[in-house]
Amino acid sequence: MHFPAIGxxxxxxxFLLPFATEMPPEDRRFSYEAPMQWQYLYPQCGGVDQSxxxxxxxxxxxIGLPPLHFGLYDEPFDELLNVRNNGHTVEFxxxxxxxxxxxxxxxxxxxxFYEAMAVHFHWGSAQQKGSEHLLxxxxxxxxxxxxxxxxxxxxxxxxxxxxxxxxxxxxxFKVVRTNYIYYQPGFTEILGSLLHVGEFNSxxxxxxxxxxxxLLGGLDRGNFYAYKGSLTTPPCSPAVLxxxxxxxxxxxxxxxxxxxxxxxxxxxxxxxxxxxLQSLERRQxxxxxxxxxxxxx
Length: 297
Ligand SMILES: [Zn+2]
Description:
Blueprint: H1 8-22, H2 38-41, E1 54-55, E2 68-71, E3 83-85, E4 90-93, E5 104-107, E6 110-123, E7 134-135, E8 138-139, E9 142-150, H3 156-160, E10 166-176, H4 185-194, E11 203-204, E12 224-229, E13 240-245, E14 249-252, H5 257-260, E15 286-288, H6 292-296
Parallel strand pairs: 1-7, 10-13, 10-14
Antiparallel strand pairs: 2-5, 3-4, 3-11, 4-6, 5-6, 6-9, 7-8, 9-10, 12-13, 12-15
InterPro entries: CA_dom, CA_dom_sf, Carbonic_anhydrase_a-class, Carbonic_anhydrase_a-class_CS
Keywords: Lyase, Metal-binding, Zinc
Cofactor: Zn(2+)
């Protein structure tokens, strides 16, 4: 049947309404098969300052940035993690540390204190590398996001509506063909959890008290790209001060495929959960190089 009078807008509306009405706020349904359609339900996905973007050492602003400061990152959590498959990724909420506060960061592009709220991952498939950000034209195999909220805002919703509401630390991983990689205990526990959270909505609690810093391994925390961007999943709020580390960490070719075993809410393989690159437009990208430590100390 054909309706010549019906506008494109209404066609989209009819397509989206069944989802829109049944969807509680924390159960955001979206598909990586059609990321261009996110904007019809989440207008900010078609708006300004979107992420991810390509990062290129040749195209950065040579202005010094202060180092990031990591508060309580190496203090143990006061409870065990709960690692969960939410249908789009594997994630866990960041507990408070034994000092009663969550780990936090400041420095870099951050003028305030940002406390760590949650950690999740983006990956590809056997055929496709799956980092979200590109470094010097290369896509890597895995990307970890540690999402932080500005402590001057009381809720995630409030923070998402501010341009300085959130800060995300991104770590990229490159697959290496060796069995002998020393992972920090935190990352080992996350990898071990993957086999237990294959099905949608399943979760697993590793039996170890970890620190947030133990996810970063021996990463050079002083060398990072920084820019103003957005959440890379709906609602794509342009509220994120991104800090993407320049060093790429190794992950064994025996461990990476564990991410590809996960399944989404429809029981299908949860693969390629990375958003396509977005236009940088006129945004500036900063790169903090190790040399600058001399200038700032
Ligand atoms: Zn992410």
